[in-house]
Design brief:
The protein is an alpha+beta fold. It has 4 domains: about 45 residues, MutS, DNA mismatch repair protein, domain I, CATH 3.40.1170; about 150 residues, no CATH class; about 110 residues, DNA polymerase, Y-family, little finger domain (Dna Ligase, domain 1); about 100 residues, no CATH class. It is built from 15 helices and 19 strands. Helix 12 runs parallel beside helix 15. Strands 14-15-16-17-18-19 form a 6-stranded antiparallel barrel. Strands 8-11-9-10 form a 4-stranded antiparallel β-sheet, sandwiched between helices. The radius of gyration is 35 Å and the shape is elongated.
Length: about 525
């Protein structure tokens, strides 16, 4: 039994079938329940844990169909799962065989289960909970016969709230046929629009699609084994076969995988999910298998409550595998080059470098391997951004690259300081290039200078919350490329302009920002 505080008292939240026969029911106070059954075993109710367990069951049901979702927790501790098996039943020998396999596996791991199958979602829900005969584990409503089979079921099979069911019972409306015979307008005035909508959903007059926990991937392959696999070598070989088959399908469609999801369905009902990503689209089975194999080798031992190690090993065996490309991109068939396995292949085949990035991301974490991406800005601090290497695919250089309107026409130094450092500079005329500057205590006399290159603040950017400025500083910059007597070249800028609004005690300041060589 499960109990939780409610309304100033501790009440039963869920009861077993044996307890129901003893007169216990959800909502009953714990004191009354103990008076009826002193030996009652009670545990704290954990709704969050129940919801997580139901989500895990929904993931496990994806072995039968990708369209699986939890229907939620119900009063008394029951719970439900939605499965849309359209086009999937033939893989298991038909609808009846599929339901027998599903209910049998859930029963063997300790669940009490009933399954219903019908043309509509509402009819399937009613069949699972109110279908006859009551002792049957699976109830199948024959195709097209759900209206007549629903007519004999109680109105509680329509998923109506308790207060609505009480009102219908007081009026003597106990079967779905009685409710369906009433005028819809009068029914809506008395009980709202929900009863009529539930009727239409059950009879198929209104669609009620299932929203799966995860979008059903287009590129998904599944394999089930006559005998469960326990050896790591056998599991890896099966994964390799799935990977090659998936790459062949992607090749026919001229697409490549960016994200992969491998699910291992174990005998005890546990599902282990492995995800791998690539920095750009790939359908190389060797490369994709290496990414998956690294994750397979790091899978923890599945937890088990088996009484002995042999039983625990049997529960951890894998009986079904699914492999899906959850993210794909167009990838046309091209020849990238011929490699020999030598180190200089990195220069001849750029794919080798990308595959290295993928492997490092799998080992170190996707957020710890990064690449620089160009950003549209004239400010040197903002022309590039660091982002995860797998965040987007790097663009290959085109044969005739288009002109980039935001790319600076003037050269930029190959090395920038992390932060511009202040210098003391002397210029003969305020707006002229400096003739000398002092940086870190050393005086540099300038022999050549080019500039200025004026860069104004980016007025369209949102002001910084801390300082209220639109950029790192609000002043216009005049950049100069200068060379000193020793041939060293620097990138200096004057922060601010000489104008009538600037105070004489606050002249523009000079900074060193980078080096040309």
């Amino acid at each position: 039994m499960l109990a939780a505080p409610e309304g100033g008292a501790i009440r039963l939240a869920a009861v077993t079938l044996t307890a129901q026969k003893a007169g216990l029911f959800p909502g009953q106070t714990l004191a009354d329940a103990r008076a009826l059954s002193p030996e009652l075993a009670v545990h704290d109710h954990d709704p969050g844990g129940d919801a997580a367990a139901l989500d895990a069951l929904a993931d496990w049901c994806r072995r039968y169909t990708p369209w699986a979702a939890p229907s939620g927790l119900e009063n008394g501790g029951a719970a439900g799962l939605w499965l849309d098996i359209s086009g999937c039943a033939h893989l298991f020998g038909g609808e009846a065989a599929m339901l027998d396999d599903l209910t049998g596996r859930l029963s063997r791991v300790g669940y009490t289960v009933r399954a219903g199958l019908a043309d509509t979602t509402g009819a399937a829900w009613a069949a699972a909970r109110f279908g006859r005969p009551a002792q049957a584990v699976s109830i199948i409503m024959a195709e097209g016969r759900h209206p007549e089979m629903l007519a004999t079921l109680p109105v509680s099979a329509l998923r109506l709230p308790p207060d609505t069911l009480d009102g219908l019972d007081r009026l003597g409306l106990r079967n779905i046929a009685d409710l369906a015979a009433l005028p819809r307008a009068g029914l809506a005035r008395r009980f709202g629009e929900l009863p009529a909508r539930r009727l239409d959903q059950a009879f198929g007059q209104i669609d009620e699609p299932i929203s799966p926990r995860a979008p059903a991937p287009v590129w998904r392959l599944r394999t089930a084994f006559p005998e469960a696999l326990g050896r790591e070598e056998d599991i890896a070989a099966a994964v390799r076969n799935l990977t090659e088959a998936l790459c062949n399908r992607l090749a026919r469609a001229e697409r490549g995988a960016r994200r992969l999801e491998l699910c291992l369905y174990r005998v005890a009902g546990r599902v282990d999910t492995i995800e791998a990503g690539t920095s750009r689209a790939s359908r190389d089975p060797d490369h994709l298998m290496r990414l998956l194999r690294e994750q397979l080798d790091r899978l923890p031992e599945p937890p088990s409550s088996a009484p002995d190690p042999l039983s625990a090993a049997a529960e951890a065996m894998v009986e079904t595998l699914t492999l899906a490309a959850t993210g794909t991109e167009p990838l046309h068939m091209i020849q990238t080059g011929i490699t020999t396995g030598l180190p200089n292949d990195y220069e001849r085949d750029p794919d080798v470098l990308e595959q290295l990035v993928d492997r490092l991301s799998g080992r170190l974490g996707a957020s710890n391997v990064r690449r620089f991406a160009a950003r549209e800005s004239h400010l040197p601090e903002r022309v590039q951004a660091s982002r995860p290497a797998l965040a987007d695919a790097p663009q290959k250089p085109a044969a005739n690259p288009p002109d980039n309107p935001w790319k600076p026409a003037l050269p930029r130094p190959p090395r920038l300081l992390t932060r511009p450092e202040p210098v003391e500079a002397v210029a003969p005329v305020p707006d002229d290039p400096p003739v000398m500057f002092r940086w870190r205590g050393h005086l540099h006399r300038i022999t050549r200078a080019e500039g200025p290159e004026r860069i104004a603040p980016e007025w369209w950017r949102t002001p910084d919350a801390a300082g209220g400025s639109t950029v790192l500083d609000d002043d216009t910059r005049d950049y100069y490329r200068v060379e000193d007597e020793d041939g060293r070249r620097f990138w200096l800028y004057r922060d601010g302009l000489y104008d009538r609004h600037r105070h004489a005690d606050d002249p523009p300041r000079w900074y060193l920002h980078g080096f040309f060589g």
